[in-house]
Amino acid sequence: MPDASPFLAVENLTKAFGGVRAVDSVSFTLAANEMRCVIGPNGCGKTTLFNLLTGYLPPTSGSIHFEGADIPGRPLYEIARAGIIRKFQVPSVFPGLTVDENLRIALAGKANPGKVGTGFPSGFAKREGRAERIHILERVRLDRHRHDVAGTLSHGQKQWLELALVLAGSPRLMLLDEPAAGMTRAEKQETIRLIRSVHDESGISALVIEHDMDFVEALECEVMVMMLGRVVASGSYAAMRDDPMVREAYLGNGHTGGGHG
Amino acid sequence: MARIPTATLLALVALVLFLVLPVVTASWVAADFGIYFAYAVFAVSLGFLWGHAGMLSFGHAVYFGIGAYAMSVVTLGMVPGLPDLKSTWIGLVAAVIIPGLVAAVLGWFLFASRALRGAFLGIVTLALSVLAERLAINADWLGGMNGLMSVPPINLGLNGEGADLYDTIPVYYVMLAVLAVVVAGMTWIQHRPFGLALAAVRENELRAATLGHNVARLKIGALAVAGALAGLSGALFVVQFGFASPSLIGFALSADVLIWVALGGRDFLVAAALGAIVVRTLESRLSNALGATWPLAIGALFMVSVVLFPRGVFGELITRLDRLRHRRRTRRA
User: Fold this and answer.
1) DSSP state of A220
2) B244, exposed or middle or buried, with CB in 10 Å at 0-12, 13-18, 19+?
3) Cα separations (Å) of A26 from A15, A250, B282?
4) A211 has a pLDDT exceeding 50
5) Measured between alpha carbons, how far is B108 from B111 in angstroms, rounded to an integer?
6) DSSP assignment of B274-306, as one string?
7) Are B235 and B50 a contacting pair, CB within 8 Å?
8) Structure confidence at residue A124 (pLDDT)
9) Could you tell me the CA-to-CA distances from A200 to A31, A35, A192 in Å, in that order?
10) CA distance A235 to chain B (A)
């Protein structure tokens, strides 16, 4: 490795639950501005990997470095303020609050330059501006639902609100856990367009967990295949599609199904 | 045109009713209501902590009691080393800052390194209120079991040398004004980033943290704000009641305020405030009518209303009116 540290470097990362190694000696790096899909059968450790990257779970061993800084052991909010923002698999927007309030919360939580870690009350950036909120909501086609209570949105709209929360958090690295799960075909197309445009325009790095192989193909990015907690292959979508081991282990059986990673 | 929230409309209607109340009733009614308004501020404090921030406290009277004692100690000239200090204003500041600090320190212990919540938080606060009451009973310098008597009323002078605010009607309107400002101010805070972040913590703590919110600090902040406000209400109570006793700090009053807020409605601050006023009014009427059995009647009322209106009586009213207004609006559109 040259002297410049990589954007995201994961080394020998392991998470064991009892005797089960949900994530087993995973090592990879992600460059700045890179987008990559993480695929693999149910239970292969994809979501656990995200839980480790966001500090939700402490690793059993191994290291995660984000822009040179150690990630494990830091509190969740600090990791978020460092720029790793996650979209959950099951939409976990704030259901009792309006769409607009959801966004204000995300904007209030994001990193406050020069004041990172000072928290309450100066940690509230002044930048929860109305124009920014409307702009983000236009991007996810929710501008007409700004004053609706989030719990009343359709499933697809909740997924988009999740994406809006991620965008409002000023991410440096987006972790998108099944961004199109449970969406209609049209909504999926729209989601692909949205993720691509966010990535292309602002160069935000992204790891995307997805089960739908058409979705992965349409995102046009590198693919990393996980099985039984290990990264078993990575490369272009075409290379992965043609890899006999990947085909047999994953693509061959039920590749359209959703579920837990 | 922006729609006025239904809770605000209800608050305005209640404000108008309370403004004319002393004109149409006997003065002893107004005297009672002055004290009820102090209780209502107390209920708003718990409504903010429990309903808005999602932190249930079984020992909220601790802050109320500390506020009441702080005001009493200052205005009775009992501050050690400062025998000449008798200012209502200093008493008011002490009654807000001391319980606020106590709440912040407690919050730091509860939330800074571990994330105590739900029933565990309830149990700790319950133990605390019992402990605080024992401490007050055993504190001879605070009058022990007898408490502090002859606490002066609000004195308008800088150090207790001015006119006393003693007449029923002015006191009534001062208390009503403070309650109105508290409800308006706390509602404003609910919609500021701090208040919104607390709502986020209430709805989904993990999500709030993964969006960059320091949940522990937010909770400590919420507890400090609620503690300071409860302290204010204790001070407002004691300048009217004239007597601070260990019962103000203990479990009984902590349970009372929970009942007021649950009965009124914890989702809206104004509902919590009205809950306190209505329950207190009913208690005094029922104790006249039923004699010693009135607590049974209140208990039955509480159980029935919790089953019928889990959002609280006024919470339910606001929610239904809101739905009605929404339907009429969409029909017109």
Assistant:
1) T
2) buried
3) 10, 19, 66
4) yes
5) 5
6) HHHHHHHHHHHHHHHHHGGGHHHHHHHHHHHHH
7) no
8) 46
9) 14, 10, 12
10) 30
Q: Say how far apart CA B214 and CA A81 lie, in whole Å.
A: 10
- Residue whose tokens read 């193909």: A217
CA–CA dist B270, A34 (Å, integer): 51
Domain locations along chain A:
8-251
Asked if residue A13 has pLDDT above 70, the reply is: yes
Mean pLDDT to the nearest integer, A81-93: 89
Cβ(B249)–Cβ(B69) under 8 Å?
A: yes
Q: Which of A38, A41, A42, A22 is nearest to A30 (CA)?
A: A38
Q: Report the CATH architecture of A8-251.
A: 3-Layer(aba) Sandwich (3.40)
ipTM, 2 dp: 0.86
Which helix (H) or strand (E) segment holds residue A237: the answer is: helix A237-242
* Residues with Cβ within 8 Å of residue B292, at least 6 apart in sequence: none
CB contacts < 8 A (A, B): 83
Task: Show residues of chain A in contact with B212, CB under 8 Å.
Answer: 77, 80-81, 109-111, 123, 169
Rg of chain A taking only CA atoms, in angstroms: 18
CB contact under 8 A, B209 and A75: yes
Min Cα separation B284/chain A (Å): 37
List of residues 6+ apart from A146 with CB closer than 8 A? A98, A99, A100, A133, A134, A137
Q: Which residues in chain A belong to E strands, given as ranges?
A: 8-17, 20-30, 35-39, 61-66, 69-70, 84-87, 173-177, 205-209, 222-227, 230-235
Residue carrying structure tokens 């990947």: A246
Per-residue pLDDT tens for B123-147?
A: 889 999 999 999 999 999 899 989 9
**3 state SS of B230:** helix
Q: What are phi and psi of B267, to 5 degrees?
A: -80, -15
Q: What are residue B136's phi and psi, to 5 degrees?
A: -65, -40
| CB-closest option in A76, A95, A105 to B197 | A105
Answer whether B194 sits within 8 Å of A121, measured CB to CB: yes
- B197 interaction partners in chain A (CB closer than 8 Å): 105, 108-109, 124
Taking any CB pair shorter than 8 Å as contact, residues of chain B touching chain A are 193-194, 196-197, 199-200, 203-204, 206-215, 217-218, 220-221
Q: What DSSP element (H or E) covers B271?
A: helix B269-290
